[in-house]
Amino acid sequence: MNSIPPLWKELSQSADFVCYEHQMNSVPLYIGYFKSLIESEILQQHILSCLSNLTNRSFEDLYPLIPIAEKEISSDWDLIQSKIYRGYVAIQYGHQSIPCILVNAASSNGRNVTNPEVEFTVEGPKEAFVESLDINLNLIRKRVPSPDLRIKEYMVGSLGKSRVAICYLEGLTNKQYLQTFIQRIQDVQFDQITDSSLLQQMIEDNSNSIFPQSIGTERPDYVAWAVSSGQICALKDGSPSAFFAPVNLWQFFITYEDYYLPWIIASLLRLIRMCSVLFSVFASSFYVAVMTYHGQSISNVFLPTIVSSRINVPFPPIVEVIIMELVIELLREAGARLPTKIGQTIGIVGGIVLGTAAVEAALTSNFLLIIVALSALASFTTPIFRMSATIRILRFPFIIAAQIWGLLGIFICTIALVAHLLRLSSLGMPYLVPFYPLRTSDLYDTVIRPPYSKFHYRYSFLRTLKPARFNKKNVNAKRDIDD
User: Fold this and answer.
1) How many whole angstroms separate alpha carbon 213 and alpha carbon 424?
2) One domain for residues 85 and 207
3) What is the C-alpha separation between 308 and 77, in angstroms, rounded?
4) Which residue windows are transmembrane per the record (predicted)?
5) SS3 (DSSP) at 361
6) Which of 37, 69, 198, 412 sits 20 to 30 Å CA-CA off 124?
7) Is the model more confident about 428 or about 347?
8) Euclidean distance between CA atoms 400 and 405, whole angstroms
9) Across the chain, what does the average pLDDT equal?
10) CA distance linking residue 55 with residue 247, whole number of Å
């Protein structure tokens, strides 16, 4: 093994790497670190101050005197190099190939915990994950103060090792799902994992599907609920979001705010959300099918209005729909990529101006403009962004099939979509459960959100080791009004 100081010459090619020599008992003591990664106060007060007190003492006395918990001794250069890149200070005594002391002095500079930006809710906590893994784990531990909560860390990536933490409840989470999740994390072969969303795609059962098979979130309370339900969560250092699995299709249309609202209101909002998704997928394609092949099915009440709105439009319905759908997507992308205030202005003003101009120029009909606008609004009701993007993409195959075969094309596309969903799984769990395979005991928290007195059992499709949430004996007992 080469001595460490010559190997530090490679790191010294970076301007922010510091390597200097400190004499102790006439023997050189080498200290190396990246000044951009460490906290200077920790270095001065807790590390260098200990070196000044070792005038008449040996190198072995240094390790127990450093008042920092995260430290270790190693002679493995790969480990030493990895630690230095994570904000550790390396100390070696002389040129010999002897163990090196590694002391954690990483800088804690980062974004403070703020309100959620993507999953903002009126009810419930107002905290979101940040880029620091340690802070994110703290947010989870505060909400799951259980001795059964287990956190395992892994290093992922060949070019730059990234810290990935897996959270689950020991004695509750299904061991098969847990083993599959951990195995896929360990099997990831990629040079650099910059965000948890990359990791999320790499461990999914079918990476070629446009349907996500795990849920990403920035809310610690949502992760706490998922972990307590028996699901497995993963977080990456440097990423302000987490993801958990296994999941089914219906969980993508459930927002965690549903559990903070009264169950009747939450159930109605869920029904509106799911109906909106169906409308967003089928509305434009039904318009193309009816206007192209099934004009006789239009009611006499609406026929004069539709005919008068399309009388001056020179394009067939398919071209008209594609133009309007692309305009909506352009406005959406422009609003998302621009700064917040400018993006809102572009979305509102652009939509009004382009919509009015398109109708006046006879490029589209008023009727279609209303359908496309409602379809775009309906797609925004999906609380998970990745599923919202999936719903947006799904509209185009249905529109094309409606132009080719009419309502039969929509039916064929629906059958193909259902067949694809039947084949999907999340960590081996069927994607359409509890409807297929049918689990009648799990239907209570799918389309509607029942009162908490009905949450006696956890989802059976998660196959948890502790199915019961609480003792059901006295759950229906009513107190006297004077108690």
Assistant:
1) 8
2) no
3) 78
4) 271-293, 343-361, 367-386, 398-422
5) coil
6) 198
7) 428
8) 9
9) 85
10) 60
Measured over the CA atoms of residue 137, residue 143, residue 144 and residue 146, the dihedral's sign is: positive
pLDDT at 439 over 70: yes
- Helix axis angle, 366-379 to 303-310, nearest 10°: 100
Tokens of 124: 């419930």
DSSP 4-48: HHHHHHHHTTSTTEEEEEEEETTEEEEEEEETTTB-HHHIIIIII
298 or 144: whose pLDDT is higher?
Answer: 144
**Per-residue pLDDT tens over the stretch 248-273:** 999 999 888 889 999 999 999 999 99
Write the DSSP symbol of residue 88.
Answer: E
* 236 and 270 belong to one structural domain: no
Of residues 210, 168, 172, the one with CA closest to residue 185: 168
What phi and psi, each to the nearest 5 degrees, are found at residue 42?
-65, -40
Q: Tokens at residue 357, please?
A: 């101009």
Q: Which two tokens stand for residue 221?
A: 């309370």
Report yes or no on 466 lying in a domain.
Answer: no
> Same domain for 76 and 149?
no
Residue 181: which domain range? 133-247
52 in a structural domain: yes
List all residues 6 or more positions away from 288 whose beta carbon is below 8 Å from its beta carbon. Answer: 317, 318, 321, 399, 402, 403
Q: Which span out of 7-16, 402-411, 443-452, 465-474 was modeled with the highest average pLDDT?
A: 402-411
Name the strand (E) or helix (H) holding 22.
Answer: strand 17-24
Q: What are phi and psi of 475, to 5 degrees?
A: -70, -30
d(CA 116, CA 139): 13
Beta sheet of 71-74, edge-to-edge order: 17-24, 27-34, 88-93, 100-104, 71-74
Six token digits for residue 65: 């005197």
Domain boundary among 411, 430, 449: 430
Measured CA to CA, the distance from residue 291 to residue 421 in angstroms comes to 30
What burial class does residue 389 get, using C-beta atoms within 10 Å of its C-beta: 0-12 exposed, 13-18 middle, 19+ buried? middle
Non-local CB neighbours of 393 within 8 Å, separated by 6+ positions? 210
How is residue 290 annotated by DSSP? H
